[in-house]
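Practice problem: predict the structure.
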Amino acid sequence: MPGAAHLVLVGLPGAGKSTIGRALAKRLHWPFVDLDDAITATCGLSVPEIFERHGEAHFRRLEREATERLTLEAAQTVVAPGGGWITVPGLVKLVRPPSRLIWLQVSPATALARLGADVAHRPLLAGADPLGAVTALLEARQTFYLQADHTLSIEMMTPSDAVDAILALARR
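Answer:
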């Protein structure tokens, strides 16, 4: 992607940010960073443990710190932040410009299906009504996701198809 310092894939949990991000990074020969993995490696706790022990506000501070470290990187990188990353005040401004944000848009039902049993390990989704929780997240975050430079509906795409579509966006 000419001119982009980083490609940041945003979207609901289960949209495929990490899976597509890894495949995209491989095709571009860029490094890949999953911000949740970077956070857990730094603090030694899983995301659910961070939420349980310290709360969501603490996790969002860790996201900000991880993003600040990322912006200091000179290399072009494909980044998969958590689904709520885009809602943290100032983070979009921190990576822009020259980074480009791509919203990987899926329905709540598709996101939930892609998460499968992993939904039990998602602090904001675990509970009696995971579909209702994903739907509420989309309603709360849609305005934020619309801040992305591109929206890509990947509802019926394989990860490979999504990578091809992202690369096609870059050529526009």
